[in-house]
Amino acid sequence: MIDNLKKLEDLRGPASLEKNDADFFVRVKAVKAWQQLRLERTYPDLAADARYAPATAFFMDELYGIRDSALRDRDLIRMYPTIQRVLPQFAYEAVSKALELDVISEEFDQMLAKKLGGAVINEKNYAEAFCEAGPKKDRLHQVDLMRAVGAELDVVVKKPLIYSTLRMLRTPARLAGLSNMQQFLEAGFTAFRHMNGAEYFLHTIAERETLLIERLYSRHPDPFERLRKNHR
């Protein structure tokens, strides 16, 4: 876990802001904003379903949204000794894999920003940058990891111990000024618990994202068309 947290800090923490042109991070934010809108267009059915709405919102806002996560990452680093000591092993491993996915996603977002430069993002130049930013196998691995992380969380949230453990973290998090980090953890676990089974949710995301990746790398003339048509 700590290795992935340090990678995230290198990617988007204070040191990275000092080392790089601030305009670059504006472009990264633009990439994230465009992707968030694309996800909203791809999964309106999940967002409208009471069973899956909280998990969809968590993915859109916390994991793939435009919110600055650097502060959350620093909070997690500061709380790492407590998390390591208090969280059960199964929950610790699930959070570790989620952070691994976060690293991969952030690296890809930054590569997209480099490929796109200062251009206004649209479907055409996004599709071109997507294929130039890395091989198809990396993007398929990202989808596989997302599904694996989700499946682990789905198992974790069924264990009653996890909620008493998260409540135990509330006081040390508040005293350390890390309430945002605590809320992030609780929101993720609560959203998955609310689904009462995440298989359909995870299958739907994996299926549609894989379809999009295949269409992008096959240079389909309109890779987003089927997603727009079938999932409004």
Ordered list of secondary-structure elements with their pairings:
Layout: H1 2-12, H2 14-19, H3 22-42, H4 44-48, H5 53-63, H6 70-86, H7 89-116, H8 123-132, H9 136-156, H10 161-175, H11 179-195, H12 199-217, H13 225-230
Name a few traits of the molecule:
232 residues, mainly alpha, globular
Explained architecture:
- There is one protein chain.
- The protein has one domain.
- 28% of the residues are buried.
- Helices cover 81% and strands 0% of the residues.
- The model has no long low-confidence stretch (mean pLDDT 82).
- The chain has helices at residues 2-12, 14-19, 22-42, 44-48, 53-63, 70-86, 89-116, 123-132, 136-156, 161-175, 179-195, 199-217, 225-230.
- It has 232 residues and is mainly α.
- Helix 1 runs parallel beside helix 7, helix 9 packs antiparallel against helix 12 (199-217) and helix 10 (161-175) packs antiparallel against helix 11.
Main structural class: mainly alpha
Radius of gyration: 18 Å
Question: Structurally, how many domains make up the residues?
Answer: 1
Helix count equals 13
Low-confidence stretches: none
Quick structural gist:
With 232 residues, this protein is mainly α. 81% of the residues lie in helices and 0% in strands. The chain has one domain.
